[in-house]
Design brief:
Blueprint: E1 6-15, H1 19-29, E2 35-39, H2 65-82, H3 87-91, H4 100-112, E3 117-121, E4 123-131, E5 134-142, E6 148-158, H5 164-168, E7 173-174, H6 180-183, E8 193-194, E9 199-200, E10 219-222, E11 228-229, H7 245-252, E12 279-284, E13 288-293, H8 314-337, H9 343-349, E14 354-355, E15 376-377, H10 385-388, E16 403-407, E17 441-444, E18 456-457, H11 466-472, H12 475-495, H13 504-513
């Protein structure tokens, strides 16, 4: 304790101010528990407040619980500001599309309404304190002045994108891709996949490796000249050679319209067959757009740039974040200024600039890098492709007797390696929106529970294969899982039992009372209830 300046005790300690962490803190805090919510950035919200301005979910009818409350509050914010008949309210799509600053305002207000939640912004997780096989404390450090704190608690929740707490606590985890033979998943391992015609290409081996999908930044851009901060110089580390391949993509037709236009997937017809298709754009209120970086061109520059990030030290992570920031800003600068870009395309790109009223303490650039996949817990059940999709010649898995949340999004993995297929149509590892096999599915409580480490629950870096995680990894889903984790913490504390001994049916009932959907539509109700103490005995051949 000599190096620590303060020790604080809470009922629940949440590491990670992501939507999953916020939901967990709200669920536990609203039930009267003292909660510490720890976030390394000075802002809460993770990707929802860092440029991911459209909520990815296929069936809005299954959206419920705290995310539904969040989206309703977003809509109310726009109605209160502009009137119910305004274009801004129309563009917010019932609260599913939003500006980062509006999302942050809503989430901050939800947290501020609960007096028992202590928010520790600008505090980085530094290590776990364990006694035997239980987590009993967490060391954190103030990123601004270096002061260290030790937090003790009765339940710890890892809501980080990276799975940092679970790793520090000694829980087993996966990193990378399983082989097809590991779980019998058709889309596992090293793949070259024709996303237009849904077929594997030569070079596919289905072998496992330690690679993960590309990270990016999700840009919020504005088309309002009065609110624009234009790039007047390239970013540090800029190399135009990183982007010249987009010219080949344009000539080869890889920047043309997709074979099938699906609403909400982020494209403007006016961008088809232009270099602006390097971005996937979705319109937001107040003359802003959510600008994803299109993973389909072969020039997509991000695969492999995240190597070493997940298990790297602070300096390594900061270096990789800066590299990704430079690549993202460099792409925008290239599109707007490079003389090899056709003038018409440059003029189109110059309409989109950083917004003056967003990310005002970070150069108008998002705080959080888009970490699509990192560590994944090895838990008491492993979700696989068989759980989240229709696998040919296989009976779909489910419903799970301990299902505590529902997801509905196609398997969608960004490219993993910057290696093109032999026919130069796709980068290795890209599984682009596998709609033909998508289905709503329930998520069992067991995917959040480590096999051995007690007093720890993991609602974000859950126990799933790479393929299954590529469907589950959506913020509305993580918010539902966070809410379930917070409720499980409450039940464990209330009854002085282990998290693994929380009665699954009691947990499900309490979540249903809070308005959370726990079973997919048209699912037959589970025929076998999970009794207290039985979760630890529920095993799967997908361990």
């Amino acid at each position: 304790m000599s190096s620590l300046e303060q020790l604080e005790s809470f009922d629940v300690v949440v590491i990670g101010g992501t939507p999953a962490g916020i939901a967990a803190a709200l669920a536990a805090g609203r039930l009267g528990h003292t909660v510490a919510l720890v976030e390394a950035h000075d802002h809460l919200g993770g990707m929802i407040t860092s440029g991911l301005g459209k909520s990815d979910i296929e069936s809005r009818s299954i959206v419920s619980g705290l995310f539904a409350e969040f989206s309703q509050r977003v809509r109310r914010t726009y109605v209160d500001r502009y009137g119910s008949d305004s274009r801004h309210v129309e563009l917010c799509q019932n609260g599913y599309y939003f500006e980062p600053s509006v999302a942050e305002c809503v989430l901050d207000r939800m947290i501020d309404e609960v007096d028992s939640i202590t928010v520790l912004r600008g505090h980085r997780f530094e290590g776990a304190i364990c006694e035997g096989d239980e987590v009993v404390g967490a060391n954190i450090v103030n990123v601004h002045d270096g002061r260290r704190l030790q937090l003790t608690g009765r339940v710890f929740i890892d809501a980080t994108y990276e799975g940092d707490l679970l790793a520090a606590a000694g829980a087993e985890y996966r990193l990378g891709r399983e082989s097809r033979s590991r779980f019998g998943e058709p889309h596992a391992g090293v793949v070259f996949y024709d996303y237009e015609h849904h077929r594997f290409l030569p070079g596919t081996t289905h072998e496992g490796d330690d690679c993960i999908p590309a990270f990016t930044y999700r840009l919020c851009l504005t088309t309002d000249p009065a609110n624009s901060v234009a790039l007047d110089a390239p970013p540090t580390g800029y190399d135009r050679a990183d982007y010249l391949g987009y010219l080949e993509d344009l000539e080869a037709g890889r920047l043309s319209a997709p074979a099938e236009l699906i609403d909400g997937r982020g494209y403007y017809p006016e961008h088809f067959d232009t270099l602006m298709r390097a971005l996937s754009v979705a319109e937001l209120p107040n003359s802003k757009v959510d600008a994803n970086i299109n993973p389909r061109p072969l020039a997509f520059p991000f695969p492999g740039e995240n190597v070493g990030y997940v298990e790297g030290d602070l300096a390594t992570r900061q270096r990789i974040c800066l590299r990704h920031r430079s690549l993202a800003l460099g792409l925008l600068y290239f599109l707007q200024n490079d003389q090899v870009v056709p003038e018409e395309h440059r003029q189109m790109a110059r309409r989109y600039n950083l917004p003056r009223d967003e990310f005002t303490d970070n150069g108008h650039f998002p705080w959080q890098m888009y970490i699509r996949e990192a560590r994944r817990l090895v838990g008491r059940y492993t979700l696989t492709e068989h759980d989240v999709a229709r696998v040919p010649n296989c009976q779909p898995r489910g419903p799970h007797a301990d299902s505590i949340a529902v997801s509905d999004f196609p398997i969608d993995s960004f490219p993993v390696q910057r290696i093109p297929s032999a026919d130069r149509t796709v980068l290795e590892g890209y599984l682009g929106m596998l709609d033909p096999i998508a289905r709503p599915y329930g998520i069992p409580y067991r995917v959040m529970l480590p096999k051995k480490v007690g007093r720890l629950i993991v609602p974000l870096a859950v126990s799933a294969s790479h393929v299954a995680f590529s469907s589950l990894r959506m913020e509305p889903t993580w918010m539902a899982l966070g809410q379930a984790a917070g409720m499980a913490a409450h039940l464990a504390i209330e009854s002085s039992i282990e998290l693994a001994d929380v009665p699954a049916q009691t947990l499900r009932d309490r979540l249903i009372e809070q308005g959370l959907t726990v079973d997919p539509p048209d699912a037959c109700p589970p025929t076998v209830a999970i009794r207290p103490g039985l979760i630890s005995g529920l095993t799967s051949r997908h361990s």
